[in-house]
């Protein structure tokens, strides 16, 4: 599976996206996190949080993202 196919899974909200992300990038992410935290538990939590953040950040394909309009740091009035 290439990155485009993986992104398509996120866009369609397939839970398989998370499993594929871990299969493809999990080992590398755990290694980087372990080098930072020197703790297996903290590294696992960091990688899980990163995957969750990716899941929540990638909008559903076909729907416009309103996050720019509602984000307080953008200077826009809340909707």
Write down the overall geometry.
elongated
What are the low-pLDDT stretches, counting only 5+ consecutive residues below 50? 73-79
Distance N to C terminus: 38 Å
Number of strands: 0
- Evaluate the radius of gyration: 15 Å
Q: H/E element string?
A: HHHH
Instruction: Summarize the main sheet.
Output: none
Q: Please, how many helices?
A: 4
- Integer tally of domains: 1
DSSP helix fraction? 55-70%
Strand content: under 5%
Mean pLDDT: 83
Care to describe what's here?
The protein is an all-alpha fold and 79 residues long. It has one domain (3-74). It contains four helices and no strands. The longest helix has 22 residues, at 16-37. Residues 73-79 have low confidence and may be disordered.
Brief rundown of the structure:
The chain is mainly alpha-helical and 79 residues long.
Essential attributes:
0% strand; 79 residues; 67% helix; mainly alpha
What secondary-structure arrangement, pairings included, does this model have?
Blueprint lengths: L2 H9 L4 H22 L2 H18 L9 H4 L9
């Amino acid at each position: 599976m290439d990155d485009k196919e993986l992104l398509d899974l996120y866009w369609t909200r397939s839970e398989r996206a998370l499993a594929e992300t871990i299969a493809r990038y999990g080992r590398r992410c755990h290694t980087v996190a372990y080098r930072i935290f020197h703790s297996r538990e903290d590294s696992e939590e960091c990688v899980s949080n990163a995957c969750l953040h990716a899941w929540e950040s990638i909008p559903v394909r076909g729907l416009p993202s309103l996050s720019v309009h509602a984000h307080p740091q953008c200077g826009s009035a809340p909707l």
